[in-house]
């Protein structure tokens, strides 16, 4: 499989290593100096985007319009998902997006949903969340934290929204989950969810030790979407629906 890496930072380089180990070829490395628009789209079978929140939406539109299967790991564009879905379907192409491609994190998403449903019957517990990432991470809270919050809201009617004091969303509609977004050097990604009452606390946690899990998941997703049409997530790849 011939892969275009859209964004060639730390994640792009990690994906390159995994892809080569799995027998694939990197035929394009897209950066600000080597933009997507200058590429021969016939030179790759799939594109994997780990660029920046400011560039990702234009990248998505370009890939979709050129019917290039796209794996999108960059976050910060969820408000445009419906528009992107309509564009993918009208162009008869395929896009797979995830806030986190790690197999372990996606299992954690499922665990979070199950726990949220169980806790919905026990209103004496208040839920809160903490996410810790490296200081270079641009968005707060992380896309993974937002996905976790949405998983709680969908399965626990006590909560209708989320807020993040360190981000731009500090006001909520209804009772909100508080997400603390902490930035520390060299942290690959830690997410913790706490249900606390006056009696006790129940917590679940996922801690990434390196970027390899994210990169492997992105390559697995790229392998999976070939010859498919529509919009998918890692739930589809891992059969967690």
Which keywords apply here?
alpha/beta, 24% strand, Rossmann fold, 11 strands, Dihydrodipicolinate Reductase, domain 2, 5-stranded mixed beta sheet, 35% helix, 6-stranded parallel beta sheet, 7 helices, 241 residues
Low-confidence stretches: none
CATH topology name of the largest domain, in short, is Rossmann fold
CA(first)-CA(last) distance: 27 Å
What is the string of helix and strand elements?
EHEEHEHEHEHEEEEHEH
User: What characteristic shape results from the CA principal axes?
Assistant: elongated
Textual characterization of the structure:
It is a single chain. The protein is an alpha/beta fold. It folds into two domains: 127 residues, 3-Layer(aba) Sandwich (Rossmann fold), CATH 3.40.50.720; 105 residues, Dihydrodipicolinate Reductase, domain 2 (2-Layer Sandwich), CATH 3.30.360.10. 35% of the residues lie in helices and 24% in strands. A hairpin with a 4-residue loop joins strand 9 and strand 10. Helix 1 packs across helix 6 and helix 4 runs parallel beside helix 5. The chain is elongated. The model has no long low-confidence stretch (mean pLDDT 95).
Concise overview:
The protein has 241 residues and is α/β, with parallel strands linked by helices. The protein has helices at 10-21, 53-65, 81-90, 103-119, 143-155, 212-225, 234-238; strands at 2-6, 25-30, 46-49, 70-72, 94-97, 126-133, 161-163, 176-183, 190-196, 201-207, 230-232.
Blueprint of the fold:
Elements: E1 2-6, H1 10-21, E2 25-30, E3 46-49, H2 53-65, E4 70-72, H3 81-90, E5 94-97, H4 103-119, E6 126-133, H5 143-155, E7 161-163, E8 176-183, E9 190-196, E10 201-207, H6 212-225, E11 230-232, H7 234-238
Parallel strand pairs: 1-2, 1-3, 3-4, 4-5, 5-11, 6-8, 7-8
Antiparallel strand pairs: 6-9, 9-10
Helix pairs in contact: 1-6, 4-5
């Amino acid at each position: 499989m011939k892969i275009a890496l859209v964004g060639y930072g730390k994640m792009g380089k990690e994906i390159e290593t995994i892809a080569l180990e799995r027998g694939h070829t990197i035929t394009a490395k897209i950066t600000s100096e080597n933009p997507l628009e200058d590429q021969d789209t016939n030179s790759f079978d799939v594109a994997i985007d780990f660029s920046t929140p400011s560039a990702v939406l234009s990248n998505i539109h370009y890939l979709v319009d050129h019917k290039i299967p796209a794996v999108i790991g960059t976050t910060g564009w969820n408000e445009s998902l419906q528009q992107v879905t309509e564009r993918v379907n009208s162009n008869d192409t395929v896009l797979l997006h995830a806030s986190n491609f790690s197999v372990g994190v996606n299992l954690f998403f499922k665990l979070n949903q199950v726990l949220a449903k169980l806790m919905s019957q026990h209103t004496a517990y208040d839920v809160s969340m903490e996410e810790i990432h490296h200081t270079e991470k641009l968005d707060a809270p992380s896309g993974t934290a937002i996905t976790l919050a949405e998983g709680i809201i969908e399965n626990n009617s006590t909560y209708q929204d989320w807020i993040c004091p360190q981000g731009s969303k500090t006001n909520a509609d209804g009772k909100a989950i508080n997400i603390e977004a902490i930035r520390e050097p060299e942290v690959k990604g830690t997410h913790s969810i706490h249900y606390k009452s006056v009696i006790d606390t129940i917590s679940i946690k996922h801690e990434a030790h390196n970027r390899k899990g994210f990169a492997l998941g992105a390559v697995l997703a790229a392998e999976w979407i070939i010859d498919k049409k529509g919009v998918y997530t890692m739930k589809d790849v891992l059969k967690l629906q």
